[in-house]
Design goal:
The chain has 416 residues and is mainly alpha-helical. It has two domains: 274 residues, no CATH class; 121 residues, Serine Threonine Protein Phosphatase 5, Tetratricopeptide repeat, CATH 1.25.40. Helix content is 64%, strand content 3%. It is elongated and about 80 Å long. The termini are far apart. Bound molecules: zinc ion (ZN).
């Protein structure tokens, strides 16, 4: 079912780069402040979106940092001025690249996206892409297409779940719906969610249109025209580094069957658009990093929960090349190696912990874990030194007794 639905939609909605560049807006954009009547399909989508929003507000995964939420809301408003007071942004701590905007203005931005954007410009492009879907009422179009394959009530519920879950995310990041559900299963009814991958997606045409609209909004707001192509390029590279062959292969499959592929064609189309635009400012990395920094460690820890060490390591390498937050990044690179336990990974982990502790922002746990790995390798002097530094740096640590016991054992070992 899933496969045939995908295939059907993919074949009917092939789009060329030329068509994308022409960027036809086939229907008028939505009128601000217009709520559809309750007894219409659209009204039904709105009221279900209202209910889903109430659930999201109470979600344990909601990030409640007022400064972060205000920042993302402010950026969204800057890009979507005419809809600003209709859009309500909720930052969710979920380790997937995702943003979604329901027709009633309820918007989720996931931590996996904030972690992966390198600059405000890149985030602006993705938000602009979502605003594009929102402004053109693409979700209503998608719901109409779904009604031909499912009864109306199911189509409605699938749509709202999909919008909330971001099954329609512009990245086309080929994490399976079940992966996403594992991260966010508490939000919606799993029975409906299981149908989403097959039933719901924006058409390729709508995805390409959203890219173009997102590009225009971002450039109009003064951001770097190259940011959109760079953002998608990074996501393609990260996918190619996945631990899981199915995720890696999805990229190739997507070019033929998937309805919202993150393809090289889309990147190429955005690059062509960027070439035709006057150069904007270069993305401000430092300001964006400052906003993200308080959450960086927690989000990297969440990312490791996906157990896709290939992707996480690719992400960390990319962020490390920007030369910010080196201690934290090296620590989580070490954690990825230590958890992956492949051949040579413990040696790599020890090297990465060692790299981490050379930076001022190294987490205290880097010394403890460095001590553990040194002890395992029989390097007692290094282990003792690392444990002692840990106790000095984290005098209140809950595992203090454990580390003290390890030190004692090392001392006994030396005595015999
Ligand atoms: Zn999209």
């Amino acid at each position: 079912m899933t496969r045939s639905a995908r295939r059907f939609a993919g074949v009917t909605a092939l789009v060329t780069v030329a068509a994308l560049l022409a960027a036809p807006a086939r229907s008028d954009p939505r009128t601000p402040h217009l709520r559809p009547a309750e007894n219409t399909d659209e009204g039904g989508i709105w009221s279900l979106s209202d209910k889903t929003e109430q659930q999201a507000k109470l979600s344990a995964e909601r990030n409640r940092d007022p400064a972060l939420n205000a920042y993302v809301q402010g950026l969204t408003c800057k890009l979507a001025a005419e809809y600003c007071d209709e859009i309500r942004v909720y930052v969710m701590d979920r380790p997937f690249f995702n943003a979604s905007m329901a027709p009633n203005g309820y918007t989720e931005v996931w931590s996996g996206l904030l972690l992966r954007a390198e600059t405000e410009d890149e985030l602006a492009f993705v938000l602009g892409h979502e605003i594009g879907h929102f402004a053109e009422n693409h979700s209503i179009e998608a719901q109409r297409a779904m009604k031909t394959r499912a009864n109306n009530a199911l189509a409605l519920q699938v749509l709202v779940s999909a919008v909330a879950m971001g099954a329609a995310v512009g990245s086309g990041s080929p994490q399976s719906a079940s992966d996403i559900m594992r991260a966010a299963g508490s939000v919606n009814d799993l029975i409906y969610l299981s149908a989403i991958a097959g039933y719901f997606s924006y058409s390729r045409e709508n995805e390409s249109e959203a890219d173009t609209l997102g590009f225009r909004r971002m450039v109009k707001a003064g951001y770097d025209p190259a940011a959109g192509a760079e953002m998608w390029r990074s996501q393609i590279d990260e996918t190619a580094a996945s631990t899981f062959p199915k995720v890696r292969e999805a990229q190739a499959r997507a070019s033929i069957f998937s309805t919202h592929p993150l393809s090289v064609e889309r990147v190429g189309a955005l690059q062509t658009l960027a070439k035709g635009s006057p150069a904007g400012k270069t993305g401000d990395r430092k300001a964006y990093r400052a906003v993200i920094r308080p959450h960086l460690a927690a989000w990297l820890r969440d990312d490791l929960r996906r157990r896709d060490y290939g992707e996480t390591l690719a992400l960390i390498h990319r962020l490390e090349s920007l030369e910010e937050d080196q201690g934290v990044l090296a620590f989580y690179r070490a954690e990825a190696y230590r958890q992956r336990r492949g051949e040579g990974d413990l040696i790599r982990a020890r090297e990465a912990y060692t790299a981490s502790v050379a930076f001022v922002d190294a987490p205290s746990a880097a010394w403890r874990n460095l001590g553990d790995l040194a002890a395992q390798a029989g390097d007692k002097a290094a282990a003792r030194s690392a444990y002692e530094t840990y106790l000095v740096r984290a005098p209140q640590a809950q595992d203090r007794w454990l580390v003290e016991a390890s030190l004692k054992k090392l001392a006994e070992g030396t005595a015999t």
